[in-house]
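Handout, section B. The chain below has 270 residues.
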Amino acid sequence: MSIKLLGKVLIKSTIEVKTGMRIGGSTGGLKIGGVDLNVITDPLGRPYIPGSSLKGKMRSLIEKKQASNDANFWNKRDRQGNIVGHECTNSNSYTKCPVCKVWGILGGNEISVPTLTRIIVCDTYLDTSSITDEMKENLELEWTEVKFETAINRITGTALHGSLRQAERVPAGARFKDSEIIFNVFEESDKDLLKDVFVAMELLEHDYLGGMGSRGYGRIQFKNVEVYWNTRKDYETGNIDLKPERKINNGWDIPSKLVQNFAFLKSKLI
């Protein structure tokens, strides 16, 4: 297998929160009257989306899609023997696996081919201007809202004693700007794998990011997507600015349009 860098695809976008989102963070110690379930924040106290959360959720969704075509796909277990996901264990399966080739793998004794991760997902930070003055009037905290949660006795329909808690959430309407996903192309066949990244973004829009998704939290949408292609030669000459001529998505600025027009996008990766 010949591995060399052919180029990098840069996928830039804005992530808009459609329903309150909670990606958990440290409480920073117990506080009287404090929130029970905090969101993760940057050093300035503003919520952000960790790249690990976004990458992990995208991988999980693609794994589920891939598993629908392969009954033996789920093979990774935790210490208790419970199925927790998929990871290739030999070279033959790895070379055919869109999940492990794109999202990465720890590697094993039976894998003798290079296992280079194709995708890099960066942290994405809050666009503070998206939290308007009108929104702030209805927020309990500077950038976030507080929602009370409780467990319900499904027989009586009443709240269970001691189950009331406060969950901090990023409010609907918040935007996280300059989201960046970098896709490395090491082989010609990698260009086909790029479609799985767009499909994962598409699937995520109809799923959730963060916790408590079954309760309606965490619906997001990718907006203003821009896709750029830089070849190895561009890096060797320092000609890697995000110039209009390097933008290859032809105005298709949402994941579903990128999937629909993938054949055209792939033709631009030359």
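Note. Residues 51-67 form the longest helix (17 residues). Compare this with the example in section A.
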